[in-house]
User: Fold these one by one.
Assistant:
Number 1:
Amino acid sequence: MTLSGNIAIAGVYEHPTRWAPDKSDYQIMGESARGALEDCGLGIDDVDGLFAAGMGMGVMGVVTLAEYLDLKPRYLDGTNIGGSSFVAHVNHAAGAIHAGLCDVALILYGSTAASQAMAIGTGGRGGQDAHASFISPYGLTTVGSYALVAQRHMHEYGTRPEQLAEIAVTMRKHASLNPAAKMRNEISVADVLESRVISDPLHLLDCCIISDGGGAIVVTSAERARDLAKPRVLLRGCGEAVCHQETGAPDLLTIAARQSSEQAFRMSGLTQDDVDVAAIYDSFTITLLVTLENLGFCKPGEGGAFVEGGRIGLGGALPVNPDGGGLSSNHPGMRGIFLVIEAARQLRGECGPRQVEGAQVGLVHGTGGTLGVAHSGATLLLTGD
Amino acid sequence: MAEIEHPKPFADWETRAYWEGCGRGEIVLQRCGACSKVQHRPRALCASCLSGDIEHFVASGRGQVYTFTVTLQNNAPGFREACPYVLAYVELEEGPRLLTNVVGCAPDAVSIGMPVVADFTAPDRDLAVPRFRPA
């Protein structure tokens, strides 16, 4: 029996908070667990696989989380490969369930990045070990790392700042339809270009927001999910990959999404043309643009033209991040879990004014780390039931 | 623009030859004795063939800008005061691309493909940090 089509996302929950100075990361995870289990009609006693990653959880975070929830699962996975971790957790949970190592996997994230005033994008002075010493003297910020990619993309392909700005404008338009989104006032291309430059060529409005938040996903077998409360969302294909500086010759425009999506598409038997809605990590406008190219929705260098004319907006050929993405809805440090949640809810047809009409096939792609130095990627292909 | 006041490099036994080379004003790279692959960053074995037969050699110090960004905001002390500064990848003549800064010219004078040459901060006893300036 193949894995493809036999694993289901049964329950999801996005914590509504965007600002939670009165909550701990673990509290947000606990409340999200409650939400996702209620969503599918399971109880905490049904959970026998626990998956989590976080920015402040420490090396044994998933063990601390198990203690917080008084859980004794028979499968633990604390994989942390950056913001894509939760997309990878779905992949790992699928493998574990398929192999009989657990039956009900609970994937959790919670963070108070905003209320703790983490300067995620522009705060890095770097560590002082032998590895970090090749980076820390130079003032690399997260924004700077992505700006290196954007500058190279503009040089090789003539990509224009207006094209990057259109991505931010589209995400904000989507967020205006999402009552939970943090930034809901619509913006124009001029607003993006007139916002201050953080790291050339990226402006403030090319960068994701910083919020608090969290979420949860319940994964089980397609068979078990059949009798649960909500329509099943079936996993059709998945893949992971990593890209880094190699031995000194990084190609900044070929990213992990290339490899991870090739496997996911192959496994699923689906093609790019089949995809009705996509949830793609948008830490920065350039992240989304190069990811679209590497996922095969357009050729390398064509991303700028691809995002023009409303193609990635609601009503366009490939609606991306109807929730408003990290650029406008929420970004509590690591965002991958929300990609899975939004894609699942779109395929269940429950997204109200931001619903992609008749969405049957969804693609999720998470990026973790920084594109300019080292990063991971994880892709899922999902279908409605 | 103030000079970047940056953390001093930490050299362990795998990376010491590189940082000591910088202290002498040289870019030191590694070549595999088994497969001839040039690699950076330095490590104890060849990442291509896993051979432990690693030799060091002095590179030319010349290269060109592969990509760059003018950083206008970095809230970390030491960098905040130095904004705007140029963060870049420089592709060396020998192949490897180094994350670095371009100094010695106005930030808006930097462009991709620009020829540059290594420029070292004042050595702190044995070690120094390589940056690049227009050739």
Number 2:
Amino acid sequence: MNDRVELFRGNRIFLSCVYWAFVLYVFVPLILMVLMGFKDSKFIGFPIRSWTLEWYTGVFADAEVLSTFGYSVAIAVLSTLISVIVGTWIAVLLEGRKFTGRGVTFGLTVLPALVPGIISAIAFRIYARYLGIEPGMGAIVWAHAVHNVPFVVLVVMARLSTLPKSQIEAARDLGADPLIAFARITLPYLVPAILGASIFCLLLSFDDFVRSFFLGGYEPTLPVLIFAKLRSGMSPEINAIATVALILTAVIGVWAERFTRRMNKES
Amino acid sequence: MTDQKPLVRIEGLSKHFGETVALDNLTLDIAQGEFVTFLGPSGCGKSTTLRILGGFERPTHGRVILDGEDVTNQPPEKRHVNMVFQDYALFPHMTVAQNISFGLELKGMGKADIKRRLQEIMAFLELDSYAGRYPVQLSGGQRQRVALARALAPDPALLLLDEPLGALDAKLRGQVQQELKSIQRRTNKTFFFVTHDQEEALTMSDRIVVMNKGRVEQDGTPEELYFRPASRFVAEFIGETNLLSGWMRGTEGDKVVMDWEGTALKGKAPAGIPAEGKPITASVRLEKLGFHADRPQTANAVQGRVVGKTFLGSRMAMQIAVGDKDEPILKAYVDAETGQSVGSDPIWIGWEADHMAVLND
């Protein structure tokens, strides 16, 4: 009995060591990146002799960085709107009445999420040219929206499957036609899922490099700009940009996660 | 039923789900103000009938006439019928007041009228203090009342109740049964109640329709069903009973004489008199069997021995073997004192012919 307890304790120490090693492995690069953004020198590396906010003030004064940031946000918001509307609509269709070809439809809907980014980006590029769509914002929004639809479909369908049938029947029973029942019962029930999916889409779009790179025009998105700056050498300015982006996405991500969890608990 | 026009007329209603027949040619009238219970095991067709009345299923054959109007093909939102769902189906994102007003809003009622009706119905069901609460903040009994208030608020011609007491604990259920019955009396609404619980049906209903395999087994008052079951199924489903299997011997006045364990027993005749020598079954309720030291003057009497007792508080259930067998074939309820005084000596069991119903299988 005692032996087993000892073994268990040993296991636990070993497992927690592995866990913390993993955490370090993930976070040390991030911490280094953040630190270098405050270093008062163009050369990345230790020791840090003096600290500065110069890179940050520089970034916030850099019109190119700011407009690129705005451009990325606009693309994220537009593509998210499209994916959420289309994705919710598909989810409602798929989760509703059973119809022949439902499985195939579901497969075709989810498949794009599994196609490697580089492949779908090239395919989009060729197709856009074929359709006569100029590279630029429209093309990027389109590609991001299409890529994000499967995530919306999956999240919304999961939520929809937990909506008791009696909820809709009760609404109908009380005088709601199918459309009113959808607007007043189904949609409010889906709000946590739709919000969660939206945040996820925003972050996916904001973070995307491959599609934005292949389908972009002259104006770069933020990830593309960072990539372009890297080609002319690593600079603490990039660290500053990355740190701001990191904090922003982390805050939104954590908030969204807690928010959806709370909403789910309430209903 | 009175000579006035029935509120609901169900004509030759059938529902097939693929090969299975859920409801088989049901014809029935329901009068205004009646508390009708559809009772039966799961799959008997009671819920299908309810869902057809609510407009959630279309019948394969037949019609539903509500208040003189054929509503068979009307969707639920067009019908003057409301329903209390088994899981209550309260809207989680709406408060109690919003839940109750939902149906009123959709009826196109004005704001002031909605407010008045809301207050009226909440006062009636003692929900005033919960108006601002959300369903998650309510107990099971309170939720049930909100569901009832929401269904009653639009003033439906017919209220459907789909096993609404199933989710409540036993103690609360008894209380809610009384409450429901009194609400039905005070509102004079027509209640169409569906349950598999025979006790619930007996307590509340004016009329019980016992369903089995999509067909009506018997349609009558609770007393009729209990004391004069028309079939073996009804006798077994409602209350506890002794089923005696014997042979038809003949008739004596309006009574049937049967052979059972070598004794001639007299009972009430079923609708069609069976032929002599045919196997028949008779039902006699547990509380109708009397214990006697000597042969009693009752129409039926057999000698037996008590081979088992179960103490139930106010009364005792006795297992009785008849003749020289050891297996108990009769069960009886006696008061606890009598039960205690009975030993293992042979005793006489007696019951009247009127207390035994000979059944159609």
